[in-house]
Amino acid sequence: MSGGGNFLEIRLSACISLAKFYSCIYKCMDAILESEDVSYKFPSTVKELDDDAQGFESLTIQAAIKGCVACMVGYLLQIKVPSSSETGNVKAYFSGHYQTYGINVQAACNHKCMLAYAAIAASGGAYDIAAFTKTQLSQMIKKLPARRFVVGDNAYVCSETLIYPFSGVEKDDLSKDALNFYLSQLRIHKEQKFGLMTGKWRILHQPLQTCLKIFGKIFMCITRLHNFCINEGNTYLNRFEDNQGSDRESVPLPVNESIIPGSSVLRYIIVNDLVHHGLERPTFS
């Protein structure tokens, strides 16, 4: 595993037993998880929120979307079939959508493709919204200030702090389709994040082959190490070449305090903002 080497070769070269080898691995993982230097950092201060919002602005053409501070993602961590001795409900870990066994991970990434938050939220058969509500992330997002929000998909509930693209007949409206396009430039960021991570850490190329209680620890270590690699400049993120920076201001529309569950006034404010500045879905592909 280190540098692509086989664990048998590593332990033999170090002259240690198999039990000692795994003991060292587990101690190393514990140290990584306890380190503040590689811990997740979801934006909370005004400066952190402003920095992340500006970072996401730079990812959309003409800085079309203002106020996004993170991208939400539900990720299925594939695992081997757990034994009945590990869990009383083996079927709960089977994802009908992906047709494999796994663990539901709820995460958020920032504009640098680094994880700002991640949690082993539920078994693989759970819906994203059910898993999401069990995490601290759901409360962090609810507490975001006005005009600061997280972008997700329709697996979640649209609100003033978590928005996603329009679907169904609504997406046929040109102004709403424009919002969908610009949001997609941010949403693809989460795909880049996990694409980069699974490409770098080959252990994620196939279901993890270990006991149920270790799966989460392994994944959390990988995410923290991946953040470390990005900080050290070992992973590169392609930016949109068409980015022209930001020299416009958002339309000063008030946020309606009367919120209908499952809807978002802010989403319509952003649509109006795009219309006001004449921003539509580009004709080029």
Q: Tell me the overall shape.
A: globular
Question: Treating each run of at least 4 consecutive H or I residues as one helix, how many helices?
Answer: 8
Query: What is the string of SSEs from the N terminus onward?
Result: HHHEEEEHHEEHHH
**Helical content (DSSP H or I, runs of 4+):** 25-40%
Question: What is Rg?
Answer: 21 Å
Please provide the count of β strands: 6
Distance between the terminal alpha carbons, to the nearest Å?
41 Å
Low-confidence stretches: 236-260
- What's the structural domain tally? 2
From the helix content, strand content and strand pairing, which structural class follows? alpha/beta
Report the biggest beta sheet as strand number plus sense, adding barrel if it closes: 6 strands, mixed
β-sheet strand percentage: 5-15%
Mean pLDDT: 84
Structure in words:
The protein is 38% helix and 13% strand. By secondary structure, it is α/β, with parallel strands linked by helices. The chain folds into two domains: 1-34; 35-238 and 258-276, no CATH class. Strands 1, 2, 3, 4, 5 and 6 form a six-stranded mixed sheet that branches. Strand 3 and strand 4 form a beta hairpin.
Task: Put the structure in a nutshell.
With 285 residues, this protein is of the alpha/beta class. The chain is 38% helix and 13% strand.
Topology:
Layout: H1 7-13, H2 18-34, H3 46-57, E1 68-78, E2 94-95, E3 100-109, E4 115-123, H4 128-132, H5 136-142, E5 149-151, E6 162-163, H6 174-200, H7 212-231, H8 265-276
Parallel strand pairs: 1-5, 5-6
Antiparallel strand pairs: 1-3, 2-3, 3-4
Helix pairs in contact: 2-7, 6-8
